[in-house]
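Hello Y.,

Per our agreement to keep a running log of every chain we model this quarter, I'm adding this entry. I've kept the format consistent with earlier entries: sequence first, then predicted structure.
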Amino acid sequence: MKNNNLTSFRDHLDAEYGKIGTKSRTEYEEGFEAFKLGVLLQELRTKEGLTQEELANRCGTTKSYISRIENNASDIRLSTIMRIFRDGFGKQIKLSVS
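Predicted structure for the entry above:
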């Protein structure tokens, strides 16, 4: 049985947030990137067996700041993110532009 109501994820995003390049789509995309960064940080911290406070102490920030990042905070400074991954985990961030 064929379901003609199925759409691609891209079509769903176009319908829900507008086409790529529109203000609402750009805001969605930026928010999603922040969400992914928070998930990545939380997964790595958990894998390393660290609490938010332990990670914060390693990289010179606060537990609440780590929590804000993990819970999708916006306007996080790139230098701070780099310091958290470098000093907190001994890892480097690689950025790409697409």
